[in-house]
Amino acid sequence: MKAAEIRKTFLEFFQSKGHTIVASSPVVPGDDPTLLFTNAGMNQFKDVFLGFEKRPYTRATTSQKCIRAGGKHNDLDNVGYTARHHTFFEMLGNFSFGDYFKHDAIQYAWELLTTQFKLPKDKLWVTVYSEDDEAYEIWNKVVGVPAERIVRIGDNKGGRYMSDNFWMMGDTGPCGPCTEIFYDHGPEVAGGPPGSPDEDGDRYIEVWNNVFMQFNRTEDGVMHKLPKPSVDTGMGLERITAVLQHVHSNYQIDLFQALLAAAKKAVDEAGAGDSDADSPSLKVIADHIRACSFIVTDGVIPSNEGRGYVLRRITRRGIRHGYKLGARTPFFHKLVGALVEQMGEAYPELRQSEKRIVEVLKTEEERFFQTIANGMEILDGALATGVKQLDGETAFKLHDTYGFPVDLTADVCRERDVTVDQAGFDAAMAEQRRKAREGGKFKMAAGLEYSGVPTVFHGYDHLSQEGAKVTAVYVDGA
Ligand code: ATP
Ligand code: MG
Ligand code: MG
Ligand code: MG
């Protein structure tokens, strides 16, 4: 089954159970200041769960575009290191707004997995929130999952393991206990079952989370009961596709093949020659082009703050991986065509924005290629001394003068088992801000124009939505 068929099967299965198929919302949430990017299928229904908004349906199903590269759910650092994390992924979900609850949710999930997708039951493990006896009993007595494969997990207060069966979209908002379904990819892969100390491997992969939405957490930490118990589920399309295509890694599924090939071709032509087709860097590039393209589609351009800075960080991280393989000229924007071919049908907005995405990414890429070589030389020089921690001053200089976001620097360091002195970096940043403020005051006193932070004028970029407006771009440092 191709990913496109799996997406369709999911939506039609829930449609047959009375759910309305609702389109994905944009990756940039329209009116939710608590959220950097859409990180789950439930985001667009937040107000419905809270009881503020009524819809003509009480059951919905979606395939939602998600970004997890900042905020509460941030997987940027996982990409390139695990078989299962992306910065952009599609989340398949079914939702009940005060309609069905635990019994139906669990049974629907089991039915889809074992009868439609025909997964072997003995490869499926489930976790339940430690105090949720009801969910435990449904899995064990009604569905028939043996006790050996049901794991009770707490809310991770001790922070000991990764698992966390109390789901929250952010520090505030709808939340509740959850039950998760894992697939065992077999003993050839390293990793332990959920709840065990080595659960963070890629053997037992979490494919589906069913959240029993019951509370709204407010800023003061208080949990208020929702008007009606509800259901919110999320299954990673790429993860379930890997299972159904009998491959272990998300990067081996059909959706990624053309992208990985396009990444290799572009990087090779940009100077890498013949890069290793299995290199994690190609996976990072294939992942990041998806995130960057969908973010640009929704109107964000690279900048030094907020969403624009997240976009810049992902773009530059992708470029650096190409540079690592030997690319010396812009290559990243050349993947957009392959991406549109893969995903343009499911997400027509991508096709409509193709030209603009290429333009925005190319501009960013040309800019970063001006400084990346010198920055890498400095970083390589600092790491050649054999330090175990990169000092904050150097990390800051790379950020300020060479346009290296600190997580990019950390990514390079991590490849060589070195950490970054984040506190030192923060201090250097604070010091520069302080100086800038003083400089600003001085200029004001001298009757000159106030400039706030030092900016370098980098010319005009034609980057606006309609392609007509001209935007002046000022960049801190590089
Ligand atoms: P993990 O523990 O593997 O990081 P999660 O518990 O953070 O996943 P949820 O917030 O429960 O994930 O999201 C619901 C589902 O979305 C997951 O069960 C998984 O299938 C999918 N998913 C979550 N994060 C990612 C990601 N970064 N890339 C691809 N799929 C993801
Ligand atoms: Mg996670
Ligand atoms: Mg998890
Ligand atoms: Mg989860």
TrEMBL record:
Catalytic activity: tRNA(Ala) + L-alanine + ATP = L-alanyl-tRNA(Ala) + AMP + diphosphate
GO molecular function, one term: zinc ion binding
Keywords: Aminoacyl-tRNA synthetase, ATP-binding, Coiled coil, Cytoplasm, Ligase, Metal-binding, Nucleotide-binding, Protein biosynthesis, RNA-binding, tRNA-binding, Zinc
Subcellular location: Cytoplasm
Residues in Alanyl-transfer RNA synthetases family profile domain copies: 1-478
Enzyme Commission no: 6.1.1.7
Cofactor note: Binds 1 zinc ion per subunit.
GO cellular component: cytosol
Enzyme class per UniProt: ligase
Necessary cofactors: Zn(2+)
The keyword Nucleotide-binding is annotated on this UniProt entry: yes
BP terms from Gene Ontology: alanyl-tRNA aminoacylation; negative regulation of DNA-templated transcription
Family, as annotated: Belongs to the class-II aminoacyl-tRNA synthetase family.
Comment block on domains: Consists of three domains; the N-terminal catalytic domain, the editing domain and the C-terminal C-Ala domain. The editing domain removes incorrectly charged amino acids, while the C-Ala domain, along with tRNA(Ala), serves as a bridge to cooperatively bring together the editing and aminoacylation centers thus stimulating deacylation of misacylated tRNAs.
Function: Catalyzes the attachment of alanine to tRNA(Ala) in a two-step reaction: alanine is first activated by ATP to form Ala-AMP and then transferred to the acceptor end of tRNA(Ala). Also edits incorrectly charged Ser-tRNA(Ala) and Gly-tRNA(Ala) via its editing domain.
Official protein name in the record: Alanine--tRNA ligase
Residues represented out of the complete protein: 1 to 478 of 875
